[in-house]
Specification:
Blueprint: H1 2-17, E1 20-25, H2 32-43, E2 47-52, H3 54-62, E3 69-72, H4 75-84, E4 89-95, E5 98-102, H5 111-120, E6 126-129, H6 135-147, H7 150-153, E7 157-160, H8 163-172, E8 177-181, H9 182-186, E9 193-196, E10 206-211, H10 217-227, H11 229-238
Parallel strand pairs: 1-2, 1-3, 6-7, 6-8
Antiparallel strand pairs: 3-10, 4-10, 5-8, 5-9
Helix pairs in contact: 3-4, 10-11
């Protein structure tokens, strides 16, 4: 009888111990870990976080990566996953906010100053996320177009694989300025100037989560925490808008 119980326990244990894998847009790097830790402490459910650009994470999910929950930086990328994964469910959780970050001594204090500095060459390198697969990169292009600075910026762009890497180019000195995620910019330090970008300057980025068909109770509970009062408060404090 005891041997039968132990055998049953060994069969069930891997299922009980499996961590929910959450693939998240890079703009959540400074916000999500604390939420995951709080969730683990409150529920005993384990959460594994994977960060990257939304486009790359979505492609990985569609290629079979074992993600339970995707936290995308825009709605269009999320809907591509839903279309490719019958049974997946999407819903918004935040509104992305951009910021201009500038290194000390660059002489740029606002967005109009960025335009002038791009034209006269004082800003030789402007970091943005790669618009080929990062929604923040597309939004940054929209900001430059709204400023009438897209042509001047084009030869000066330094593309990060995701928005966190784009910010790292500025903090490391590889770029004098960048258009990145406001929540990341607020935590960057290094004496950077941070100028929030008015949302009207780019198409809205409605950050959208996708619960994959394989999502277990832990993933669903974490999604509920993110979209509930605790998650919304944390997102607001970090600098995200709320849908």
């Amino acid at each position: 009888m005891i041997l039968r119980f132990l055998a049953l326990l060994l069969m069930v244990w891997p299922l009980a111990a499996r961590a929910a894998t959450v693939a998240a847009a890079a703009d959540l790097r400074t916000t999500l870990p604390a939420l995951a830790q709080a969730h683990e402490a409150a529920t005993g459910q384990r959460i594994t976080l994977v960060f990257g650009s939304s486009g790359n994470l979505a492609q990985q999910a569609m290629n079979g990566a074992p993600y339970d929950l995707l936290l995308m930086a825009d709605a269009a990328t999320a809907q591509r996953v839903v279309a490719a994964a019958p049974g997946a469910v999407a819903r918004p959780y935040a509104l992305a906010r951009l910021a201009l970050v500038v290194r000390p001594g660059a002489g740029v204090r606002d967005l109009n100053g960025l335009k002038a500095a791009l034209i006269d060459g004082r800003v030789r390198h402007l970091a943005i996320a790669n618009p080929a697969h990062a929604p923040y990169g597309l939004a940054a292009q929209g900001v430059l177009a709204s400023l009438g600075a897209r042509a001047a910026a084009l030869p000066r762009l330094v593309l990060g694989d995701n928005v966190a890497q784009a910010l790292s180019f500025v903090t490391s000195g590889a770029a004098e300025a960048g258009l990145v995620a406001l929540p990341l910019a607020r935590q960057a330090g290094g004496g950077l100037s941070v100028v929030p970008v008015p949302p009207a300057l780019h198409a809205p980025l409605v950050q959208t989560l996708v619960l994959m068909p394989r999502a277990d109770a832990a993933a669903r509970a974490f999604a509920a925490r993110l979209t509930g009062p605790q998650g919304r408060a944390a997102l607001r404090r970090a600098g995200f808008g709320l849908p």
